[in-house]
Design a protein that fits this description.
The protein is of the alpha/beta class. Helix content is 39%, strand content 21%. It is built from 11 helices and 13 strands.
């Protein structure tokens, strides 16, 4: 496990994932801590796959207040936790952990992050058919958010068809709407995207530094549809550029990132987050990658 910086005598929170060099979460949370004069520090830890359990135990041993979890560990981390609550329990996917004395409690703030990012389009989402690219933790959170916003049906598309089918089966019993899982192919994408009025990318495709890629081309995207990319770096991904040219409404993953970060901040500090400070820090941090 390697950390981006040291934390001295400050209360530790952090990020566990692999890779994490693209992450701007330390900038967002440290700006919020500094603004409120809190003695906290947020550090990103790059954790190799065989070291996840040791990393989680290490953060507890260090007296951390908690940590975020990102790709590829949002589902794998569950077995190392003592309890899941709320949305994390529903979809068995965790992006935020709170360390309470001797217990590590898993939460999912991605669901609220997606809801808050999409709430301006709630009328459009009611009764919609949605395509979700991916079948991991982010896809699960997006599906639960869409169900709560009134979506009528969801299709997951994944490079591993069995993974998409397993996720669809798992969620079908929990979110009470039509859910299907298919393999990722050009024909599937073209067929499904043209009949869906919502598309969400829940894969890392298009993320810095490989930002020149998109799973969908403009001719596969329905004009007037809503396209959200959960990738936030860059804020306008290749998918969103293609969607814009297709005449779709575009929602950046940066919006979701800020909203989910705000919810995590509340869980760790019991304080209201300075959202504008966090947003400004995110925009400034993204500039490093331009």
């Amino acid at each position: 496990m390697s950390a981006q910086t040291s934390f001295g005598n400050k209360r530790l929170v952090g990020l566990v994932g692999h890779p994490v060099k693209h992450s701007i979460s330390p900038d967002i949370h440290n700006a919020a801590f500094n603004h409120l004069n809190l003695n906290y520090v947020y550090i990103a830890f790059d954790v190799k796959e065989n070291a996840l359990g040791a990393a989680v135990k290490g953060l507890k041993a260090l007296g951390a207040a908690g940590f975020n979890v990102t790709i590829p560990y949002k589902q794998r981390v569950v077995k190392f936790l003592d309890k899941l609550v709320d949305d994390a329990k529903t979809i068995r996917t965790v992006n935020t952990v709170v360390i309470e004395k001797d217990r590590m409690v898993g939460y999912n703030t991605d669901v609220l992050g997606v809801i808050n990012a999409l709430i301006p389009y709630k009328d459009m989402l009611s009764g919609c058919e949605a395509l979700i690219l991916g079948a991991g933790g982010g896809a699960s959170a997006a599906a639960l958010a869409l169900a709560r916003l009134g979506c009528n049906g969801i299709t997951f598309v994944s490079r591993t068809p069995s993974k998409a089918r397993r996720l669809a089966y798992f969620l079908r019993r929990r979110i009470k709407i039509s859910v299907k899982g298919l393999g990722l192919s050009a024909s599937n994408l073209s067929t499904i995207a043209k009949v869906c009025n919502v598309v969400i990318n829940a894969t890392p495709v298009g993320m810095w530094p490989n930002s020149g890629y998109s799973l969908l081309k403009r001719e596969q995207i329905r004009s007037g549809s809503l396209v959200m990319d959960m990738v936030y770096n860059p804020p306008e991904t290749m998918l969103l550029k293609e969607a814009k040219l297709a005449g779709a409404i575009c929602v950046s993953g940066l919006d979701m990132l800020i909203f989910q970060a705000a919810e995590s901040f509340k869980l760790w500090t019991s304080l209201e987050p300075p959202i504008e400070v966090m947003k400004n820090a995110a925009i400034e941090a993204i500039g490093r990658f331009a």
